[in-house]
Automatic annotation (TrEMBL), chains A, B:
This is Aminotransferase. One of its GO terms (molecular function) is transaminase activity. The lineage of its organism: Bacteria, Bacillati, Bacillota, Clostridia, Eubacteriales. It comes from Ruminococcus turbiniformis. SUPFAM superfamilies: PLP-dependent transferases. Keywords: Aminotransferase, Transferase. Pfam families: Asp_aminotransf (PF12897). The keyword Transferase applies.
Amino acid sequence: MTAYKDLSREELLELKSGLEARFEEVKAKGLKLDMSRGKPSAEQLNLSMGMMDVLHSGVDLICEDGVDCRNYGGLDGIAEAKQLLADMMEVPKDNVVIFGNSSLNVMYDTVARSMTHGVLGSTPWCKLDKVKFLCPVPGYDRHFAITEHFGIEMINVPMTPTGPDMDMVEKLVSEDASVKGIWCVPKYSNPQGITYSDETVYRFANLKPAAEDFRIYWDNAYCVHHLYEDKQDYLIEILSECKKAGNPDMVYKFSSTSKISFPGSGIAALAASEANLNEIRGMMKVQTIGHDKVNQLRHVRFFKDVHGIVEHMKKHADIMRPKFEAVIDVLEKELGGLEIGSWIKPLGGYFISFDAMDGCAKAIVAKAKEAGLVMTGAGATFPYGKDPHDSNIRIAPSYPTPEELAVATDIFVLSVKLVSIDKLLGNL
Amino acid sequence: MTAYKDLSREELLELKSGLEARFEEVKAKGLKLDMSRGKPSAEQLNLSMGMMDVLHSGVDLICEDGVDCRNYGGLDGIAEAKQLLADMMEVPKDNVVIFGNSSLNVMYDTVARSMTHGVLGSTPWCKLDKVKFLCPVPGYDRHFAITEHFGIEMINVPMTPTGPDMDMVEKLVSEDASVKGIWCVPKYSNPQGITYSDETVYRFANLKPAAEDFRIYWDNAYCVHHLYEDKQDYLIEILSECKKAGNPDMVYKFSSTSKISFPGSGIAALAASEANLNEIRGMMKVQTIGHDKVNQLRHVRFFKDVHGIVEHMKKHADIMRPKFEAVIDVLEKELGGLEIGSWIKPLGGYFISFDAMDGCAKAIVAKAKEAGLVMTGAGATFPYGKDPHDSNIRIAPSYPTPEELAVATDIFVLSVKLVSIDKLLGNL
């Protein structure tokens, strides 16, 4: 393939006219396709239907230690749910608290509590003139929405193939006491599918923050979300590394079963040091009488233990893998060598990250929409929705059927080509 | 019966000696009884076990409007759950948002949001020097815990047989702009079982607050929790009254199915004006991707409609009524005419409120504990745990079995008598 930049104006115009004809054909079909959000497909949801059968009126809803899950009590989770999530999160059971159905909600509450009450005795952030969070980019829009909601200033930190630019992280964290946190998706990151290297995790654990109330928000959302059995990323466990480094309180680690069982009806967990958890329990005691223990029990009875989760995730992978490969194949076949975009082939997670030529992302997403394909809004992967290069596009291949996905990726590729030609022709 | 105050010192001493002997007998049994919290009994929980059967792998988990409850989405609740809770809360469906498993959590979040973001554009409360809440007393300790947690100053407002002292409420709300809210349990109040009169509700709806961001926190926790079919309290619906009075935004109305289905595994709801709900949805959008829709669907499939809830509550009443009557009977039989305590016989709710002679409540609760009976801590029904008269004790008859309840009430009555005698003898 010849790179588009090496084509003459005439060649580009001729190419464009052919592509436009194809685009109009697709557009005429009046399609409605969605690659915008990391939603499991119906086929994946069916994998967990057995969870609806483990609790029924013929079995008791009593925990191993005698707690009746149907009644009040059990503020921080039932023992067996703690064990299940602790094993999945690779931390001791005593370092885990079980929450409700949403780890995002736990993150929100963690920031909200810091705003009104500070962190382990520090000044409440709402009393400070300036609070900042570091945001590895591209990243997860809902993380950024939380910090923006609370008026926290967000600073972009570029992602590298081994995780965030740690030179920049170390400098900002150690020099600026108004830097109170950093958002991380350390494994199969959203959207790039990058897993932080051992060195990156060590450097995180050994940060020397200027702020005593600086915390790493370690959102391990995709900890068991591999695509392959034989090719898997491995992430060093941060909680124990922080402890070893003499920074036991520096990290909050979040996870949930949202993309394991049912999104919205799973269980969430937070792992942290005893000091952090005690503070959090203190707030929980005021906030709620306890989370949904019946649903915790339902998860434990269905998965039994972490091996059950691992086996279950293989079934998810069997559904997800062909979808990822279909998208990657089309990207490689249609865009390889054209030098109008780059992408990373991930080994897990929910997304493929695509980088268009600078200044093209918004136009590509708009073009795709013309033909009935909804993508995540361009810019969404950056704080304030502002991608300084207008380049990154998040592709979410999980929800469409394989047939829809083939058509959707075709539309995407067509849109990339057409917009890139316009860019090279100086029309953008 | 002769009132204790009319007995001579000698008579009191003789009485005391007999009672002490009986108390030692009971104490020797080494009992463990609990009348401290409003927990449903196992028998009541069994009423809802059918809820575990309505969803199974053989039925779909799809809403009437096609929403798949197993996936992300549906931020403010599924349509049929809104209808169910709206009917129960006697408000239009469009004025309801469905939350997670805990209305207390919704109240907490509502206060937390006001702290960091204000209310419909007002100054965030955390930026103000002083924020105050009115607290009808005796009241619900967990309400008071929320406002105390956020450093909000609490002002006691005495309860009357028709609700809070409205002269005091009107004066404080209209004159002091730092008064931002009032906690109300308007029906079968916690702990007195009082239902606000029509006039009280009208006066609430017609308040003229000095603060634009003043809100009534209307915790209608016991809206369908009657004890009798033929004797029921009736509460005027506040949302429509506020609307009629030109104060549509002045009230947040909370409810849940916690004491209808399973505490901790029910669904909670908030009813409010469109303006209030839009603001709340704005925060929810940042806080979560949505609450547990599968559990919402489970409730709808089990109860079907509000009539299903009403029928279900009759079964709860059949279990609760004899317990309430057993306690009331013992109180009447053992304490009637002695003038050492008073109580209200409620027609619903979860509690019986007992007022001892001034300065006796703490001692009575401590005395009962000696014999193995745990009561709600004296003072818990007041802000900061401080009952200015040290008089109020909350009795929660729901959890013990009828047999346990008979023994527990005996211990309680003995404790009241013994402490009252000590009080009259000048020993306290």
